[in-house]
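Tutorial, part two.
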Amino acid sequence: MSIPLKYPCLLMIVLVGAISRSAAAADSPDERPNILFIMVDDLGKEWIGCYGAQGIETPHIDALAAGGMQFENAYSMPQCTPSRVTLLTGQYPFRHGWTNHFDVPRWGSGAHFDPEQNASFARVVRDAGYATAAAGKWQIDDFRVEPNAMHEVGFDEWCMWTGFEEGNRPSAERYWDPYIHMRDRESKTHRGKFGPDLYCDFLIDFMRRHRDQPMLLYFPLALTHTPFVNTPDEPDAQSNLDRHKAMVRYTDKLVGRLVAALDETGLRNRTLIIFTTDNGTVPGIHGRRLGRSVNGGKTKHSEAGTAMPFIVNAPGMVPKGVVTDALTDFTDILPTFAELAGGTLDEQYVVDGHSIAPLLLGKATDTPRKWILAMGGSPAAFRDNRITPASNYDDRVIRDKRWKLWIDSQAQPEKLFDLRNDPWETTNLISSDDQEAKAARDRLLAVIEAMPDKDAAPRYRRNPAQEWDKFDYVDASQKEKD
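Running the prediction step on this input gives:
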């Protein structure tokens, strides 16, 4: 708008009006919620009280469920790396390429999570004006090679266990004497400290320092992953099972500490807390749920390995005391955070997920989902100087609210379960003549057949070769011949 100088009074009115509007905008409170995303490492429903776990107490987690929304049908991926990249990118492993497990600090070989070629929920939220922080376990970058990887992916500050860095024995420790990487500091061992306490302390300090602006706090706990260790509260636990139980109880304690800090800082009523886990419990650790013994389901496509706890709580925002059968999976995290934060999704990236924000905020009674999917596990392969999927097509499971279809590595239907009547997946109905079963099989198979018939490989600019790399930079097929 151009204003002629012969109207100076009008110019003054326009300028004063613009300044007044800017001042009003600056003074008005930001109504967008803080987001605290808590993700436990290796823990199934059989260890969470509100999901029917027996022989364990998780009062702080249960309180979140009682005061918020508890999902019955929420899928992660079956193993660590596929889950973590899926929730960051909003894409399924068949699209982002990390269909297999791969510890970048341990195995290197040029691979890493490349933020220039992948979306990230943290970057979307930070670009929308949020202060962002992460603490706990990352695993998909080697901080020796990329000390600013966390910033590039979207975090302002971080306090991360480095992961087990090949050739650096102290880095193996995530619990006692943890080896931690922080912004603008060299990674180092914190003698006599318990890592989970440090990660939690860091997030509480961050929320206190940034209480006047919207925040994203990402807490991928180191707990309850092996090795089984004694916690500060239970130093005398002896067996692996007893130590595992102690680690679960300490996880619950940390959740309680974070909630108490939100109360103390006056942030509780405008903070949306999401509690979940990245996959099932490690096999060999048996919990008891709803009257049944449950073996840990990590790496498996059973519900014990894929259908994870998922609880959302925010007094005054999220409806209270709701147990929902709504469908959601980890691809929904990025679009949900974007909607909550008022962020913009980059059109160059395909997003497989859907925002579930309307359901969380009580503005809808269901999610847009007709199905959810889980896939991924086993070690990755190294071919042509790149990390690639171990197979061209990873087996997977797809389900709706009632039916679950297992797909094998040849993209063929393998098992079908009626989860409403058979929640423990004991009776395979793939060859059933029942019309409902056949219709469900065909419906879910049609979704699978619309997906690519070959899984993508991870997208990254290869990091320079390092002396600690697991694989030599030669063609893997030639190595096998040698």
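The chain has a mean pLDDT of 92. In part three we will examine how such features are distributed along the chain.
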